Amino acid sequence: MKENTIFVCLLLLAIIINASTSIASKHLMAEKYLDQEKSQQAVDEYLKTADDNPEDFDLQLNAGASLITIKKPDRAMIYLKKAAQLDPDSSKVWNNIGLCWIIKGDIQKAMKNFKKALSLDNKNPDAVLNIAETLLLQDDFKNAINYAKKGLNSEKHITALYMIARIYRTSQNFPLAIEYYKKVLELKHDYINPRVDLGYTYLYLNQLNEATREFNRTLNLNDTITSAYYGLGIALYMQDKIDLAQKSFKKTISLNPDIIDAYLYIGLCEHKKKNYHLAIRHFKQCLNKSPHYNYALYNMALTYEELGDYDQAIKLYKKAISSDCRDYKSMNNLGLIYQEKKLYEYAINYFKKALKASNQNNFIKLNLAKTYATINYTKTSKDIYQEIISSEPKNTPLYEVAKESIKDLDK
To answer: Rounded distance, CA 405 to CA 369, Å?
Structure first.
């Protein structure tokens, strides 16, 4: 009987060991999938194992966390609440519940859970940085910086530096943003996201050589980063390196055909090369994906205008104005077309609309004054020219044109 008892004990021990090995194996498999960025496989592994072992805290926590990676907050909370029942004092659980609320768009509930996580472990760097992130979402930049700096003395030091850079960039403190991006990259040269962000910061500041450098460095590290190709394309386009820009935008589309601005910029590249029909083709591709995209409508109208197809241009400018009632450029161009067609009443009407939408742009005033002069409304024309002279600095081109125009009207 004793030998049978020993055998049964050994058998039970073997079953327990095998079960533990199986759980560990599935856990490692899930982690492997996460490392390979195969999120769905990771989730499937975690869920299957967690469902089979409802009393295992780590498995419930990992199942919830894995669902967060694929933005399934409601399902994630089911597992995280089970984990909270198993260990209500776990800071990690409440931190992850906070992330669920961030995904669901409830910042207040997110903050409540992040603070609970921090109260349970005041050294939890994830909770600290998530509070900073939540404050950033609320544009509370000062407190966001304070929390992010608390993460500098943790194992999340680099993440904290990156967050500080992002906060400064969002608050438009660009010198400090650049300083902190550089600190991140000194510690981790191959960190893609801050390098791309640094490129876009330089782009915003019109520091095009620096932007080009950072985007190229990013692509040397990883040549599949869509945002780097797109940013590089803009930097090259702004430097008038049209062929290189076009190549970069085409690569952007090959990686992600849903980036509509890449089609727009290819159209702009073709327009600069005076390949107007090719430009129109790309503007149409852009509008197929976003039919009311004002800038695409405007540039397509402008291209038809340059081809002399005024009817198509008029139609598209009107669509552009329908998509954005503040589009004074389309209004002004419609005025110029009607002026060219000698439909002066229509021209005056659109110039007046453009003036209202542009807060009294002097270039548009000049067009309106010329139109009134053409139909012999001399006093009205001179009054508008005088407005330009009064509001423009002396010796600027507009000032001189208005001054000479009044002299011509007085002859």
So the answer is: 9
- Establish how many alpha carbons lie within 13 A of residue 242's alpha carbon, considering only the half-sphere containing its beta carbon: 10
CA 184, distance to chain mean position in Å, is 21
For 352-378, what is each residue's pLDDT tens digit? 999 999 999 999 999 999 999 999 999
When pLDDT is averaged across residues 378-382 and rounded to a whole number, the result is: 96
Start-end of H helices in 70-191:
73-86, 91-104, 107-120, 125-137, 141-150, 157-170, 174-187
Write out the two tokens for 302.
């402008």
Q: Where are the alpha helices (DSSP H) in 171-259?
A: 174-187, 192-204, 208-221, 226-238, 242-255
Residues 6+ apart with CB under 8 A from 66: 30, 34, 39, 42, 43, 46, 47
Q: Are 378 and 384 in contact (CB under 8 A)?
A: no
pLDDT tier at 10, thresholds 50, 70, 90 = very low
Our separate counts of H helices and E strands in the chain read 23, 0
